[in-house]
Recover the amino acids of this structure.
């Protein structure tokens, strides 16, 4: 096997074009676990992406409101202002990832590439309807994150393609992320949810992690809550919130495994949904 | 934390480095600089790397083992199986029931079948994969009740029942107006030391002996078992303690010791073995999962009248120390409380689960979760508080256990409870004090960074746990310890085989020598088998036993010193004593510095320290089977999210019966560290096996408490020197992890009650779904 | 990089790494190829922090870094923190405060605490806990470690004020 450490995206894409079976290594926080355990054994080429400068930065276009995040931006970087102020849910999700050591190495692009249903960044990307730019030796394409994530650790990435950046619209409206784990830090999500409000469009988006084969968007719940909110005051009734939680639960399709039970996950994700809704809006009759 | 650590001893006049001071660890600088050699850091020129082939099945007959393909791999130097064990085919701590390598059947997932040695770890791994073992899979025995009922063919020639013991004491029909019955379950906990199993074996020239450097808890017991399997006399096997990265019971049994010696002897070259984390979960014993039924009878005031209990410990495939764990558990049935009558039935059984044995608390942990859960229910029935029911029933010196054994030690149960109650409750409200910018601090709430809750979602509860732990070994076992003290030119050199596993015995050994001999300089010799046994670093016993041995050896050396000084100055030695660093004449003016007095001398004393003999239990479980006892109280404050079932422990308060705190800082470390393991069992730590297969053999899914899970600890040391202990000091390692678990669970129940929810929570670890579904 | 030899810059010195399988982690290469045994491995999954090192200024788990990808980066290990026998303030405080028991987690924690105090000289209790949550200790229950961190923070602040 050989290891390549390209410093430009062009070089990385060219190498991948020449070696379509090459393994891409971003922060290493997922891939190295598999390699250390012997579950994965690269024997051709490994292309390390951590020094590709094109992937290591983000930018914000105030005119369009678009935030473009290089795939190699780390969770630690996503937790810092000003990007944390533009995308607070992504900052909150990043803070729940592993430990400082993991957040210093792990990247948003790696999160997408692994595409675990428990990936902490992914519900945020889903709720914010991110687009993902994929680059290959023969060109590039931009697809919706919804089309990229197709199953448990399965993406629609074609051979030769590298995740270059993730494009999100900075929105006017509350957004937040919540995640249940059995430990108070450094834990894989048992259930997670991102809720994002688009005040100008008077829409609500909620995406769920760890309660299905991939990230789940709850369109029924979104429509119910958007309809229940009094947008002029930003208030919502408590019954509507609990109905929202119920619809969120109903949208989940969790499994039972050694981390938790399907029943608990279904229950917990509904609670998370209702609580995120409570944070997003003022609850009518609530004196707090 | 230390700011609230209180004790009852005035330490102002203590000479630095002596008993009662908290000198730093002698290995501290090496450990913080990364130069300390753990056993996994050991290597040797030309050494080979060993690896173990393990069973993938919980129960199977071995049809054939074909190692020919492994031999063909370049760099593979040896492949060994059961046929290559020259001595005894089996080993074990109490009964030798565990094969070095399985030959006819495998009895758990992970059982060793063969071992290889190769030029590097990677080649060794490939050699393992090339071995071809054909199994005929059998129906595993996984239900302990089936084992008890005889509903499964014996899975081992010794049968499926490892031990059954009854206790019948007093008026077994006694009852009262309060009768409380419950069944409690304890999951399988892993010791999860960080320093994985590792050893290097150096064969002697001619392969007629071997030297093994290994991380272990008991060098001499290892040597005995290794020598038997190698077919050597014990003097042909020398053990040297490799740096130990934590133990907690998991290194009391043999893991890779015999395998590495066999490979080294076969090849005439040093062989290194080191387990991965996944292999470690398979390669050492765990805390026994247990199911415990208890029925307490109490009078209307809440005073215990009678207790009935049935214990079932799942020992897994091999016996290890199951029979002793069982006895600890059942003899602690009433806890640290007076109870004149009782009937207990205890079973330790064999199944095709992972083998279980020693872990910190050793049977007392399981019993305590059951009896303390019961005590809270008795309090509720009697209309008194958790604190009151415990004070009402608190054991005192002279009270007897259900075995008829009187507790002759200092037994400050009441003081432990009162001093714990006197410690301040946390001053922070739920969610912590508001931060400067008014924003909530998510890290102060259950769920932490996951931001699952707001302060209004949380309820706070308080719970109690009090426990008793027997110290040292029981049932007629003479777990003596040996120490040697040499004194010359003001320098004391200590030699012992006491395994330093992180607990800090090497620190207090020096303190004892400085105190007894008046020296400043203490040299610690290598910890190995060139001196007599020190017994195991377990059962909270080394401060008492090896501390007693070091103390006795130093006192013997001091006698020789006094004889020499007396002869030189024409004074009766009995008139001499040590004052600070001087020898003084108690009836005269003589004052000679010890350094001067010992100049040119070569004093060399070796002493064995034995505790008083204990007895076996009779068929009714009667007998003075235990050596000594220690006590502790814990009060837990927890914040609970009743809807999500998430918990944050806010504070643990504790007062512990320590006898005499030889090194208060070390005692604090044992208290805080033990509580962290008790918290782990309460909330997150469990080895999950499905159909006999472990599902979480890694630290991603076997969760250990982190900095954000462990709360501040406020502690009071109850210092009442025990007249039976050589230094007045009781062992302090185990009690912290025993009643912290039920205290936390009781606090969760209390919090839920505030939210109007009544949950039994009769199983640990408590899962979120146990709370909210 | 198409050959089997690569060079790592560790604690300011170059080390040629030969004979390694290129998929090996930085932890394995540091220990088994370069002979720096100070970094410890206890999980190989980034869950325990015992193997923490600094790569180009970032605290990372060396078990999750493929060594061959760390060429041309500045790697600092526990061996690079302070000369043998002349411990850093953090190392000294760990010993004095009773933050060391078995010591297996300690080198990784020393790296993490130095990194924390560089970025946050006066961390709160909660900040210490969050920032060190990736370093698991099985012996101490963390209390004495927090004490050690606070001691260093206070000592450094006092010294900085005295210098003013």
């Amino acid at each position: 096997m050989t290891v390549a450490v390209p410093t430009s995206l062009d070089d990385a894409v060219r190498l991948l074009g020449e070696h379509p079976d090459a393994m891409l290594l971003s922060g290493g926080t997922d891939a190295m676990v598999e390699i250390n355990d012997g579950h994965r054994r690269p024997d051709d080429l490994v292309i390390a992406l951590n020094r590709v400068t094109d992937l290591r930065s983000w930018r914000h276009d105030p005119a369009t409101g678009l935030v473009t995040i290089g795939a190699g931006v780390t969770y630690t970087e996503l937790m810092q202002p000003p990007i944390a102020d533009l995308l607070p849910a992504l900052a909150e999700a990043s803070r729940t990832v592993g430990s400082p050591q993991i957040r210093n190495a792990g990247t948003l692009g790696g999160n997408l590439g692994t595409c675990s249903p428990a990936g902490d960044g992914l519900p945020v990307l889903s709720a914010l309807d991110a687009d993902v730019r994929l680059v290959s030796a023969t060109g590039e394409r931009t697809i919706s994150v919804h089309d990229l994530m197709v199953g448990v650790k399965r993406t629609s990435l074609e051979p030769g393609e590298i995740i270059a950046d993730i494009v999100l619209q900075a929105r006017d409206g509350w957004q937040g992320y919540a995640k249940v784990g059995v430990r108070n830090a450094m834990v894989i999500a048992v259930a997670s949810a991102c809720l994002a409000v688009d005040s100008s469009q008077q829409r609500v988006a909620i995406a769920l992690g760890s309660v299905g084969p991939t990230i789940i968007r709850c369109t029924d719940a979104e429509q119910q809550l958007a309809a229940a909110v009094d947008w002029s005051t930003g208030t919502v009734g408590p019954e509507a919130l609990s109905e929202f939680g119920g619809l969120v639960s109903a949208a989940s399709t969790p499994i039972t495994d050694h981390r938790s039970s399907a029943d608990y996950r279904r229950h917990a994700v509904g609670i998370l949904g209702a609580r995120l809704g409570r944070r997003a809006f003022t609850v009518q009759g609530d004196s707090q | 934390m230390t700011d609230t650590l209180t004790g009852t001893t005035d330490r102002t006049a203590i000479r630095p480095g002596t008993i009662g001071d908290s000198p730093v660890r002698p290995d501290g600088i090496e450990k913080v600089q990364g130069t300390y050699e753990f056993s996994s850091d050991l290597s040797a020129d030309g050494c080979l790397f060993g690896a173990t082939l393990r069973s993938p099945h919980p129960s199977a007959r071995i049809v054939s083992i074909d190692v020919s393909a492994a031999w063909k791999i370049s760099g593979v130097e040896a492949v060994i199986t059961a046929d290559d064990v020259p001595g005894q085919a089996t080993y074990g701590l109490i009964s030798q029931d565990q094969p070095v390598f399985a030959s006819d059947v495998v009895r758990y997932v992970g059982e060793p079948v063969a071992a290889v040695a190769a030029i590097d770890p990677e080649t060794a791994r490939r050699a393992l994969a090339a071995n071809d073992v054909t199994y005929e899979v059998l129906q595993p025995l996984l239900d302990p009740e089936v084992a008890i009922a005889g509903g499964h063919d014996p899975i081992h020639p010794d049968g499926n029942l490892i031990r059954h013991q009854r206790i019948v004491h007093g008026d077994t029909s006694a009852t009262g107006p309060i009768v409380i019955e419950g069944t409690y379950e304890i999951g399988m906990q892993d010791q999860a030391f960080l320093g994985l199993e590792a050893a290097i074996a150096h064969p002697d020239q001619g392969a007629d002996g071997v030297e093994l450097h290994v991380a272990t808890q008991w060098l001499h017991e290892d040597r005995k078992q290794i020598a038997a399997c190698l077919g050597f006399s014990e003097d042909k096997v020398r053990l040297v303690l490799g740096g130990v990265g934590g133990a907690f019971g998991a290194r009391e049994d043999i893991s890779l010791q015999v395998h590495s010696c066999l490979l080294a002897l076969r090849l005439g070259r040093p062989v290194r073995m080191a387990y991965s984390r996944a292999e470690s979960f398979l390669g050492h014993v765990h805390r026994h999962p247990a199911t415990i039924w208890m029925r307490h009878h109490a009078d209307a005031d809440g005073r215990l009248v009678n207790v009935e209990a049935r214990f079932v410990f799942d020992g897994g495939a091999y016996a290890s120390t199951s029979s002793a764990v069982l006895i600890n558990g059942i003899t602690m049935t009433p806890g640290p409380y007076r109870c004149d009558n009782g009937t207990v039935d205890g079973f330790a059984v064999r199944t095709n689960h992972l083998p279980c044995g020693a872990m910190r608390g050793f049977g007392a942990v399981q019993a305590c979760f059951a009896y303390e859960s019961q005590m809270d229910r008795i309090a509720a029935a009697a209309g008194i508080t958790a604190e009151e029911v415990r004070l009402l029933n608190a054991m005192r010196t002279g009270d007897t256990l259900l075995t008829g054994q009187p507790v002759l030690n200092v037994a400050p149960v009441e003081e432990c409870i009162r001093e714990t109650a006197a410690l301040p409750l946390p001053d922070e409200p739920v969610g912590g004090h508001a931060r400067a910018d008014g924003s909530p601090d998510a890290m102060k709430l259950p769920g932490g960074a996951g931001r699952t809750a707001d302060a209004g979602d949380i309820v706070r509860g308080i719970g109690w746990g009090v426990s008793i732990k027997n110290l040292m070994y029981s049932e007629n076992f003479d777990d003596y310890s040996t120490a040697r003290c040499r004194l010359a030119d003001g320098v004391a050199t200590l030699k012992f085989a006491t395994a330093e596993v992180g607990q800090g015995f090497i620190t207090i050994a020096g303190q004892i020598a400085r105190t007894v001999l008046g020296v400043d300089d203490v040299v610690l010799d290598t910890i190995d088998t060139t001196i007599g046994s020190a017994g195991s670093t377990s059962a909270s016993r080394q401060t008492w036993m090896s501390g007693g041995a070091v103390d006795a050896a130093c006192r013997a050396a001091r006698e020789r010193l006094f004889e020499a000084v007396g002869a030189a100055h024409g004074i009766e030695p009995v008139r001499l004593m040590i004052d600070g660093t001087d020898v003084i004449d108690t009836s005269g003016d003589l004052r000679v510095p010890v350094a001067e007095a010992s100049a040119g001398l070569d004093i060399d004393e070796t002493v064995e320290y034995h505790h008083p003999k204990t007895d076996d239990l009779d068929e009714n479980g009667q007998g003075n089977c235990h050596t000594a006892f220690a006590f502790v109280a814990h009060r837990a404050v927890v914040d609970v999210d009743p809807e999500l079932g998430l918990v944050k422990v806010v504070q643990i308060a504790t007062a512990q019966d320590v006898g005499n705190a030889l090194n208060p800082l070390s005692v604090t470390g044992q208290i805080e560290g033990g509580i962290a393991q008790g918290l782990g069992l309460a909330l997150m730590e469990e080895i999950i096996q499905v159909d006999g297969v472990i599902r979480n053999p890694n630290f991603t899914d076997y969760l250990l408490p982190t900095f954000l899970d462990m709360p501040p600890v406020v502690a009071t040391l109850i210092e009442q020197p025990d007249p039976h202990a050589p230094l007045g000091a009781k062992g302090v390692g185990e009690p912290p992890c025993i009643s912290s678990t039920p205290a936390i669970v009781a606090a969760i129940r209390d919090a839920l009650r505030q939210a109007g929810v009544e949950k039994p929570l009769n199983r640990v670890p408590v899962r979120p779904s146990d709370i909210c579904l | 990089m198409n050959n089997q030899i690569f060079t790592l810059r560790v604690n300011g010195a170059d080390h040629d790494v030969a004979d390694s399988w290129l998929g090996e982690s930085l932890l394995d290469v540091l220990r088994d190829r370069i002979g720096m045994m100070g970094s410890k491995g206890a999980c190989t999954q980034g869950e325990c922090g015992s193997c923490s090192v600094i790569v180009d200024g970032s605290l990372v788990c060396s078990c999750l870094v493929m060594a061959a990808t760390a060429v041309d980066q500045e790697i600092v290990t526990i061996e690079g923190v302070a000369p043998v026998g002349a411990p850093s303030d953090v190392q000294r405080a760990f010993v004095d405060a009773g933050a060391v028991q078995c010591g297996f987690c300690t080198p990784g924690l020393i790296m993490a605490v130095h990194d924390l105090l560089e970025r946050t000289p006066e961390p709160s209790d909660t900040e210490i806990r969050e920032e060190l949550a990736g370093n698991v200790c099985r012996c101490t229950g963390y209390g004495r470690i927090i004490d050690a961190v606070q001691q260093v923070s206070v000592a450094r602040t006092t010294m900085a004020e005295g210098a003013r």
About this structure: Chain A has twelve helices and 16 strands. Chain A has a mean pLDDT of 96. Chain A touches chain C at residues 1-5, 25, 27-29, 32-33, 35-37, 41-42, 46, 48, 50-51, 76, 98-102, 104-105, 185-186 (CB under 8 Å).
